[in-house]
Specification:
This protein is 40% helix and 20% strand. It is an alpha/beta fold. Helix 5 links the parallel strand 5 and strand 6. The N and C termini lie far apart (37 Å). About 4% of the residues have low confidence. The strands form 2 sheets. The protein has a 6-stranded mixed β-sheet with strand order 3-4-2-1-5-6, with helices on both faces. A two-stranded antiparallel ribbon has the order 7-8.
Length: 240
């Protein structure tokens, strides 16, 4: 799969020179955070651990968005490593997005796909990592641009999971909701403190990613329910 090869060994692209169908089109990568944790073995990978791995990995990518259930939200936070500096890495490629208490990360990813569909005039591709077939279908139905869906195991391997990591998940106990929410809360607190120490708002970021960040933190203006599928899943749209 050409897209996986691009993700595994990409080069940053120019947002102004990419054209439709060109392999240099920017990639916007959407990650179902808890789904990846569960595939990896959640007991050995906290929300903070996974977000840090994604941030390290995204240094050669255009935009990586990690979605989490819970936290204070809906909201978006830039992810900047503790040892980042402008000489080493001027561009921030990773966002952590929190659903808040009223919806879940699946809804957040679906809402983001609706937001991205408003950028039909721009050239980019959307990549979704999840093993949730229902979520995958929601993302595909709402996004008019080129989109690719990959099972969460692919991302685990790209991030360095070993056979032992992936075997562990088979024997893990049932995952309690309280642990998921607690781990996400810890992540949001950690990122808040990190952003206070780094002037992340002035760093370079892909324009579409910055627009999404602002839209999330401004209350998702004009977000509407588009329709409900036969299976009961909500599809969203952005009103005029």
């Amino acid at each position: 799969e050409d897209t996986i090869q691009r993700i595994a060994g990409p080069q940053k692209t120019s947002n102004t020179s990419a054209s439709e169908g060109d392999p240099s089109n920017p990639l916007l990568i959407l990650i179902d955070g808890n789904n990846i944790r569960n595939s990896w073995g959640y007991q050995s990978l906290s929300a903070s651990d996974l977000t840090s791995k994604c941030s390290d990995w995204s240094s050669s990518l255009d935009s990586v968005m990690v979605f989490w259930d819970g936290g204070s939200g809906p909201s978006s936070v830039f992810v900047s490593d503790e040892d980042d500096d402008d000489d080493k890495r001027s561009m921030i490629s990773t966002l952590a997005l929190f659903s808040g208490q009223d919806v879940n990360a699946d809804d957040g990813m679906a809402q983001t796909c609706a937001f991205l569909s408003k950028y039909a005039h721009e050239s980019f591709e959307v990549v979704v990592f999840t093993s949730d077939a229902n979520l995958a279908n929601r993302c595909k139905e709402m996004h008019v641009k080129s989109s690719h869906i990959f099972h969460s195991i692919y991302l685990c391997l790209l991030l360095g999971a070993t056979d032992a990591d992936l075997q562990e998940r088979i024997f893990s106990e049932e995952w309690e909701r309280t642990e998921r929410r607690s781990s996400v809360k810890d992540l949001q607190i950690q990122l808040g403190r990190s952003n206070e120490c780094h002037d992340v708002e002035t760093r370079e970021i892909m324009p579409i990613t910055r627009d999404l960040h602002e839209w999330m933190n401004n209350g998702q203006p004009k977000l509407e329910i588009g329709r409900v599928t036969k299976g009961g899943s909500i599809l969203y749209q952005i009103g005029d």
